[in-house]
Design goal:
- This protein is α+β, with helices and mostly antiparallel strands and about 850 residues long.
- It has 6 domains: about 190 residues, Immunoglobulin-like (Sandwich); about 130 residues, Neutral Protease Domain 2 (Neutral Protease, domain 2, Orthogonal Bundle); about 80 residues, Aminopeptidase N, middle-beta domain (Immunoglobulin-like, Sandwich); about 100 residues, no CATH class; about 70 residues, no CATH class; about 130 residues, Peptidase M1, alanyl aminopeptidase, C-terminal domain (Zincin-like fold, Alpha Horseshoe), CATH 1.25.50.10.
- Helix content is about 40%, strand content about 20%.
- The chain contains 25 helices and 31 strands.
- An 8-stranded mixed sheet has the order 6-5-9-3-2-12-15-14, with no helix packed on it. A 5-stranded mixed sheet has the order 17-18-19-21-20, with helices on one face. A 4-stranded antiparallel sheet has the order 10-11-16-13, with no helix packed on it.
- Helix 1 crosses helix 2 and helix 3 runs antiparallel to helix 4.
- It is globular.
- The structure holds O-methyl-L-tyrosine (0A1) and zinc ion (ZN).
Length: about 850
């Protein structure tokens, strides 16, 4: 067996598969150490194929034997696959391989989690199960037989037959191998039924370990809501008689859309009021919807190759965002999505890991399941919808489903549907998929004789490998307010296509206050100098809720910047604006909570970097605390009143309205705790009958250096619950004083409950460490060293999770020379680790540049 060095794969090198698959029969004889996988695959030459050598992917497989049309063959085997001479026409390939699921700690392919067998095949895990053309443009009809000593044996599609220790499954829909799934274990189901608009009766199951059965009801409700929504909004009904979801404890990502057999990280499906927060409920609902929506956008229409990943992910995220907005309110959802985009995707775009929504090359595809592909990908769908309008979008999507159902499609196919359905030329828009970096739009204006000129100038900064950028086609939603806050020009969708454009608004009585980029109409950064007074008017009156929030956000950011730069206390006018919002009962509590929550330390650092300054994490941390203290002091009485009115009586309900009230209550609690030595928080902790209230109170106490007793009580109460214990680990790091963050994380790694091989537990500690800006960037580099030590330890077991967590170092270049040096040293130490995985090697190399 010869080893091959990691290769870069290029979009430009795409070649159609030489052979297609008609049918696949798989037999699994399950055994932890030696599972046998017997495959029988009917191949036929692809008339459009451009490969002339028969090649099957395969990794870490022990080939016991292979035949072609029944005749034994001896393939030439490498570390990544095999080749073999084949007949001219169609033929049947059979192989018998042995794999060891218990030894599979990478959680990719067939592996074991808590005694159950499960699979993860996206992106390239199927090749760790058997030899196969493991690429999404090869789609086959799968039949599966599972033999194993487990009460529940599941695979994709519909059940065919079963008996003691075996089960057979058939999936009638041709699919790529990445959607294959198998689960075997001692599981119980929470079951329900759903009848589609087409009259199909679908059995629904959420499969869990016996102790988790009381955490399934919410997920089931979310699943049914998703099924209804996709029928009503996209006209898409479910297409099998069975839909299974399985919860597993060891999973690298959130969840996976395997056809008819979705597999979920248990943290993304199990929910119950005393163990899950409002945020958990909302996230679980969205992820269940996301995976379900993939049945049409991902499974029925899949991707031609992995460069097209955003075709399914951007669209499916856009769909799940719309779903959540429909269920829970669009304004707050848009704010939350913009916050996530800025925190994760803008950060990615601004650093060494920047890449286009459709990358042009990769070494390890698992490294490209990124905020750019997912969240920016969703923004591109949103912009298309803005450009063609609601009716145009509906027509384009209908055409897309009609034209490409059953196919493996590309971004070109997708855009062509918009052009054909609406007549719009999207040639320039297509650049969004190829050009990395966050565009910046600079806004200037003038007002002469009743005519207002608004000038927008766009610029996208260079990113790795893309020094020169072209102007993009950007929808910029703009409205104009009169000085008294009334709207004089309602929202108009300006289309910015050139480097600079001026738009004219005539017949105005007075100089208007512009509200630019309403509803965050494009994923861009706005450079717009506006007076605090104008922002105050927008905060109080803008008819666009997003920009109302945004105005408050920018005022808050400027207050924080002044505190960081000059130790300045908040401007009284800002405090007045905040007070008015806090006490405005016309506004939704959730919306008020968003306005009251200050920009994060990370946001402040971003703003400093954009102003050409070097952020000092300690200084930002203490300045933000000082501003919070000043706000608490100034708004004490109003906050006290709001806190009282936001208490939600009666039994816990995760619905948005109650959750919004709790969010506002807990936001003001976090301020009030700064003044009352934790009295209210301690009382709330004591009386809490749900996790939202319990953990919010605990967080407030930890914030002021109290809460150690509650932390111990929390542990005693929840030590039997893995998901709640993840919160226990994470919270005390996230809410620690920066001087103690690293030592806290370090001591938690010595806790007997720190099961570092479980990705959720590992992330609960190290995700929290990396997310604590001032704690992680401790000046002596102890945070970097601790993380590097553990990533080096995790890499041989789980390359995917290691590579994802290395991104904690991606903002290296923005810090001072000392910190940069220390980060570089930590990364270099990781890079020099013998036998470092391909995943981590690629990420470290990209960060080091
Ligand atoms: N397609 C899934 C995400 C996913 C991707 C890769 C995985 O393993 C490497 C697992 C899940 C989704 O978008 O939900
Ligand atoms: Zn997805």
């Amino acid at each position: 067996m010869k080893d091959s060095a990691p290769q870069t794969v290029y979009l430009a090198d795409y070649a159609a598969p030489g052979w297609l698959v008609d049918s696949v029969h798989l037999t699994f004889r399950l055994d932890p150490e030696a599972t046998r996988v017997v495959s029988r695959i009917a191949f036929r030459p692809n008339p459009e194929g451009t490969q002339d050598r028969f090649y099957l992917d395969g990794e870490n497989l022990k080939l016991i034997g292979a035949t072609i049309d029944g005749q034994p063959v001896t393939p030439e085997i490498t570390a990544t696959g095999l080749t073999c001479p084949v007949p001219d026409g169609p033929f049947v390939w059979e192989a018998d391989v042995e794999i060891a699921p218990a030894a599979n700690t990478a959680l990719d392919g067939l592996y074991m989690s808590g005694g159950m067998y499960c699979t993860q095949c996206e992106a390239e895990g199927f090749r760790k199960i058997t030899y196969y053309p493991d690429r999404p443009d090869v789609m086959g009809v799968f039949s599966v037989r599972i033999e194993g000593d487990m009460p529940v044996l599941l695979s994709n599609g519909n059940p065919v037959a079963s008996g003691d220790g075996w089960a057979e499954w058939h999936d009638p829909w041709p699919k790529p191998a990445y959607l294959f799934a198998l689960v075997a274990g001692d599981l119980v189901a929470h079951s329900d039924l759903f009848t589609t608009t087409e009259g199909r009766d679908v059995a629904l199951n959420i499969w869990v370990r016996p102790g988790d059965l009381d955490k399934c009801a919410f997920g089931m409700t979310a699943l049914k809501a998703s099924m209804v929504w996709d029928e009503q909004v996209y006209g898409r009904a479910y297409d099998l008689d069975l839909f299974n979801i399985v919860a597993v404890d060891d999973f690298n990502m959130g969840a996976m859309e395997n056809k008819g057999l979705n597999i979920f990280n248990s943290s993304c499906v199990l929910a119950k009021s005393d163990t899950s927060t409002d945020a958990d409920f909302e996230r679980i609902e969205a992820i269940i919807a996301h995976e379900y929506f993939h049945n049409w956008t991902g499974n029925r229409i899949t991707c031609r190759d992995w460069f097209q990943l955003c075709l399914k992910e951007g669209l499916t995220v856009f769909r799940d965002q719309t779903f959540t907005g429909d269920l829970r309110g669009h304004a707050v959802k848009r704010i939350d999505d913009a916050l996530t985009l800025r925190a994760r995707q803008f950060r990615e775009d601004a650093g060494p890991l920047a890449h286009p929504v459709r990358p042009a090359s990769f070494v390890e595809i698992n490294n490209f399941y990124t905020a750019t592909v997912y969240e920016k990908g969703a923004e591109l769908v949103g912009m298309l919808k803005r450009l063609v309008g609601d009716d145009g979008y509906r027509a384009a999507l209908t055409l897309y489903f009609d034209r490409h159902d059953g196919q493996a499609a590309t971004i070109e196919d997708w855009l062509q549907c918009f052009t054909d359905a609406t007549g719009r030329d999207l040639t320039q828009f297509a650049l969004w998929y190829a050009q990395a970096g966050t565009p910046q739009i600079t806004v200037t204006d003038d007002f002469v004789d009743g005519t207002y000129h608004l000038t927008l100038a766009q610029m996208t900064p260079p990113t790795p490998g893309q020094p020169d950028k072209q102007p993009l086609h950007i929808p910029v939603a703009v409205g104009l307010l009169a000085p008294d806050g009334s709207e004089v020009v309602p929202t108009r969708m300006l289309e910015l296509t050139q480097a600079q454009q001026t738009y004219t608004f005539a017949g105005l009585a007075a100089r208007p206050i512009p509200s630019v980029l309403r509803d965050f109409s494009a994923p861009v950064i706005l450079n717009h100098t506006q007076s605090a007074a104008d922002r105050g008017v927008l905060l109080a009156h803008d008819s666009d809720p997003f920009n109302r929030w945004e105005a408050g956000r920018i005022l808050a950011r400027d207050v924080l910047l002044a505190a960081v730069r000059d130790g300045k206390a908040p401007d009284p006018a800002y405090l007045d604006g905040l007070r008015a919002t806090l006490t405005d009962d016309q506004l939704h509590p959730a919306f008020r909570a968003r306005i009251l929550a200050l920009p994060s330390e990370q946001d402040v650092a971003d703003a400093l970097v954009r102003a050409g300054e070097t952020p000092d994490p300690d200084r930002i941390h203490s300045a933000r605390r000082q501003v919070r203290q000043a706000i608490a002091t100034a708004l004490d009485a109003q906050m006290d009143a709001v806190f009282a009115t936001m208490q939600v009586p009666g039994p816990y309900d995760p619905r948005a309205e109650d959750a919004g009230r709790r969010t506002l209550g807990n936001t003001v609690l976090s301020y009030l705790t700064l003044l009352d030595a934790g009295h209210r928080a301690a009382a709330q902790y004591e009386g809490a009958d749900n996790m939202t209230q319990q953990i919010a109170a605990l967080g407030c106490l930890l914030d002021i250096g109290a809460g150690q007793q509650e932390l111990a009580a929390f542990r005693a109460q929840w030590q039997g619950d893995r998901l709640v214990m993840d919160k226990w680990f994470g919270l005390q790091i996230a809410r620690s004083d920066p001087a103690e963050t690293v030592t806290r994380a370090e001591s938690l790694t010595r806790d007997p409950a720190f099961d570092w091989k479980n990705p959720n537990r590992f992330r609960s500690v190290f995700g929290a460490l990396a997310g604590h800006m001032a704690g992680f960037h401790r000046q002596d580099g102890a945070g970097y060293d601790l993380l590097a030590d553990w990533l080096i330890k995790l890499d041989p077991l789980n390359p995917q999770t290691t590579a994802r967590m290395v991104t904690a170092f991606d903002a290296m270049a923005r810090y001072d020379a000392t910190r940069q040096e220390l980060m570089r040293a930590a990364l270099t130490r990781i890079a020099r680790t013998p036998n470092l995985s391909r995943d981590t090697t690629e990420m470290v190399a990209r960060i080091l540049g």
